[in-house]
Specification:
The structure holds two protein chains of two kinds. Chain A is built from 18 helices and 16 strands. Chain A has helices at 41-45, 54-58, 66-80, 91-123, 134-140, 142-163, 183-191, 198-218, 220-225, 269-272, 292-295, 302-308, 315-326, 338-358, 409-412, 414-429, 437-448, 454-458, and strands at residues 3-8, 18-23, 29-35, 172-173, 176-177, 232-237, 249-253, 259-264, 273-276, 285-288, 298-299, 377-384, 387-395, 401-407, 467-471, 477-482. In chain A, strand 2 and strand 3 form a beta hairpin. The radius of gyration of chain A is 22 Å and the shape is globular. Chain B has two domains: 5-76, Ubiquitin-like (UB roll), CATH 3.10.20; 84-206, 2-Layer Sandwich (Alpha-Beta Plaits). Chain B has helices at residues 22-28, 78-94, 109-116, 152-156, 189-198; strands at residues 5-9, 12-16, 52-55, 58-61, 72-74, 140-142, 166-169, 176-179, 204-206. Chain B is globular, with a radius of gyration of 18 Å. The chains are: A alpha+beta, B alpha+beta. The interface between A and B is medium-sized, with 26 and 21 residues. The complex binds iron/sulfur cluster and nickel (II) ion.
Chain lengths: 483, 234
């Protein structure tokens, strides 16, 4: 008798999704699926719109990571207006955008760690969900909760100062940026009263990292083995192999560290990346063409980025990177829970980069935009907090967008998240006929490692409680649990 | 020098030049009467009805009615303001006004009025008309989805020979603004810029202008529409 278990929607990930687990006759896990209802309305929606509207329009598809979409779209349009890709911009244009991006990275990673992940670490993944949440953290570990809030606030202020608004700003425009950093903002970010200054932010980023490393030391087995599996990894890297969250070339490595793609100009992404449609999911499954559907899927995001890059171009993060790399003897890290570790190293890097930029005079003066000969096709890639984000636009001669294709970070992680759920289901469900609380928790924890922005992948907002449904072979509901 | 005409708006004593409309006289006297289709120094159209005021118990458009001696004009009263909100709501539902992605946001008079009169959700159903933008001109992008048919462009955007670059086509529900592509073929940057300025909403766009103006520097970012006019109200 086959049983089908549905967990829906997944809590504490941004947006919503549901998980189904199919059991075989022996009550062993036969098949698992993470369902994310992806709505691709925006690609249609932008058709016929003037191209310069895209960065402002498209960011609306997510209330959680709008800056990433804003910047990826702007990068694609840089190509359209003939400003080249990334390094073609004026110093002011490029640096203001970078500051915006690091601000976004910083606040997004901080939110994820302090609000979404720390409850699992502080209370254990089997703890009562009534305590294992951000309120629980606020009550028991006030300092951590406060840091989370303030780091997020700092990042949001950086976004405000560069984009014009904390969410859904207009800063990045085709060919550059629409404003300089004001002296007041600069002063505030560098010398603001504690804790709202960049040195404190760097301090706290380091603190969060130390907290995680300490936890890791005490829970090495869990962190190393939970839902881990080998995979390919893909991200942008700077031409010289450095970690670069804003711009670079595509690099992909396999689980052993062999390069699959290297130095790929992302204008050519279509020659290297293909998206597979599967009948049961609205969300597509991207894969590296030359490896094929079966073997070509890859991970994106912090874990992947620290696997593809050779070094981190900021001193504190580089030091942490070296320690982190030594855990796997320099080989790619395939351990799912190390996403959190990698994410915090990136948080520190983002803070260091913000400090460097804030002291750069180019932010205060200089040409804002540039353009060259007008093109009809432009692709913009960006390392969003959750991973590589693809924006691709085609524009006709009268400036209307005629085609758009977006591959969001969470879609890139579609197969890996499915793999993680599968691993967890096998270890927690094999031989069992009942939905247990630890199993539900484990599924959530596994998905949460990727920090999926389901809001963005599904283009819908809102979180709902966790629900588990158990079906027998005749698709009759035989068990149902909610948190 | 001609005699000034004495009249009142909401009880405030005002003076008008002979032949002046209520709206113009109000502005000269520091009283704000909201308007959309009105444009200084251009023949009024009286089409948007936002400037409706009450004189002797009757509704009149302030932009077309000349001031008469001793006139008692009612302007900022609940009845009229309520009417104005309902007109604004109608304008919103009869087009496709998606402020979040509109580059005129912050400079748009319709949006500014909606804020001023605290329009919440329109009480009327959205009509979601299907209107194709006209992107054919080299310098202008016309998004009819946002056109409120105020005729400002028809009355004010003209070439050197005084010919209107814009006209209405069709009738009734199908009424739409259209650009004369021949006349506008070699439109100057300045006139294109001016056309965008003249349009109270985001229907006429100068191409590639986009979001060059940062948030915080737009017309209505710092103050509500009409608040530059020293008003007797509140
Ligand atoms: S295009 Fe603008 S100015 Fe012309 S009628 Fe429409 S709203 Fe008025
Ligand atoms: Ni998102």
């Amino acid at each position: 008798m086959n049983k089908k278990i549905t967990i829906e929607p997944v809590t504490r990930v941004e947006g919503h999704g549901k998980v189904t687990i199919h059991l075989d006759d022996q009550n062993n896990v036969d098949q698992t699926r993470l369902h994310i209802v992806e709505f691709r309305g925006f690609e249609r929606f932008v058709q016929g719109r003037p191209y310069w509207e895209a960065p402002v329009l498209v960011q609306r598809l997510c209330g959680i990571c709008p800056v990433s979409h804003h910047l990826a779209a702007a990068k694609a349009l840089d190509v359209i207006v003939g400003a080249g890709t990334g390094d073609g911009l004026t110093p002011t244009g490029e640096k203001m955008r970078r500051l915006m991006h690091y601000g976004q990275m910083f606040q997004s990673h901080a939110l994820h760690f302090f609000h979404l992940v720390s409850p699992d670490l502080l209370f254990g993944i089997d703890a009562d969900p009534a305590i294992r949440n951000v309120i629980g953290v606020a009550m028991k570990h006030k300092d951590l909760a406060v840091q989370g809030v303030m780091m997020r606030k700092y990042g949001q202020e950086v976004i405000r100062a560069t984009a014009g608004k904390k969410i859904h700003g207009t800063g990045a425009i085709p060919g550059g940026i629409n404003k300089h950093l004001t002296p007041d903002d600069k002063e505030f970010f560098i010398n603001g009263p504690d804790p709202m200054n960049i040195d404190k932010m760097i301090d706290w980023s380091q603190g969060a990292l130390d907290f995680l490393k300490d936890y890791y030391k005490k829970n090495t087995d869990f962190i190393d083995n939970f839902a881990q599996f080998p995979s390919n990894h893909l991200s942008l890297v700077r031409k010289d192999g450095a970690l670069d969250l804003y711009h670079g070339v595509i690099r992909a490595v396999d689980a052993e560290g062999n390069r699959i793609l290297d130095d790929v100009d992302y204008q050519d992404y279509e020659n290297h990346i293909e998206e597979e449609v599967r009948s049961w999911s609205y969300m597509k499954f991207p894969y590296i063409k030359k490896l094929g559907k079966e073997k070509g899927w890859y991970r994106v995001g912090p874990l992947a980025r620290l696997n593809t890059c050779d070094f981190i171009p900021s001193p504190l993060a580089q030091k942490e990177f070296e320690a982190y790399k030594s855990l796997t003897n320099g080989k790619p890290n395939n351990m799912c829970m190390h996403y959190h570790y990698a994410r915090l190293i990136e948080t520190l890097h983002a803070a260091e980069m913000m400090k460097e930029l804030l002291n750069d005079p180019d932010l205060m003066e200089g040409e804002l935009t540039t353009k060259g000969s007008r093109q009809n096709r432009g692709v913009g890639l960006l390392e969003a907090p959750r991973g590589t984000l693809f924006h691709h636009y085609e524009v006709n001669d009268s400036d209307e967008i005629v085609k758009a294709n977006l591959i969001v970070s969470t879609t890139n992680n579609n197969e890996p998240m499915n793999q993680s759920v599968n691993r967890v289901a096998h270890s927690w469900m094999d031989g069992k006929t009942e939905i247990t609380e630890p199993m539900m928790n484990a599924v959530e924890v596994a998905i949460r490692a990727y920090d999926p922005c389901l809001s963005c992948a599904t283009h819908a907002l809102g979180k709902m409680p966790l629900e588990v449904k158990l079906y027998d072979a005749h698709k009759t509901l035989i068990d149902r649990k909610r948190t | 020098m001609s005699e000034k005409i004495k009249f009142t708006i909401d009880g405030k004593e005002c003076y008008a030049e002979p032949g002046q409309t209520i709206l113009e006289a109000a502005l000269d006297n520091g009283v704000y009467i909201p308007s959309l289709c009105y444009l200084k120094d251009v023949i009024p159209a009286g089409s948007c009805r936002i400037c409706n005021v009450k004189v002797a118990g009757r509704f009149m458009t302030a932009c077309t009615t000349p001031v008469a001696m001793g006139m008692e004009v009612e302007n900022d009263i609940p009845e009229l303001n309520e009417l104005r909100v309902s007109i604004i709501e109608m304008l919103f539902v009869s087009g496709n006004h998606f402020c979040p992605a509109c580059e005129k946001s912050g400079n748009c008079e319709l949006q500014a009025l909606a804020y001023k009169y605290t329009m919440m959700v329109p009480r009327y159903p959205y009509l979601f008309p299907e209107k194709k933008p006209d992107s054919g001109n080299k310098k202008l992008f016309i998004d009819r989805n946002r056109c409120i048919l105020c005729k400002r462009c028809i009355r004010a955007v003209k070439d050197e020979q005084g010919r209107s670059l814009f006209a209405f086509k069709n009738r009734g529900n199908e009424l739409a603004i259209s650009l004369d592509h021949e006349l506008a073929e070699n439109i100057s940057d300045e006139l294109a810029e001016e056309a965008m300025e003249i349009c109270p909403v985001g229907s006429i766009l100068k191409k590639e202008k986009g979001f060059q103006q940062p948030i915080g520097h737009r017309k209505f970012d710092k103050q509500a529409i009409g608040s530059d006019i020293k008003s007797v109200i509140k």
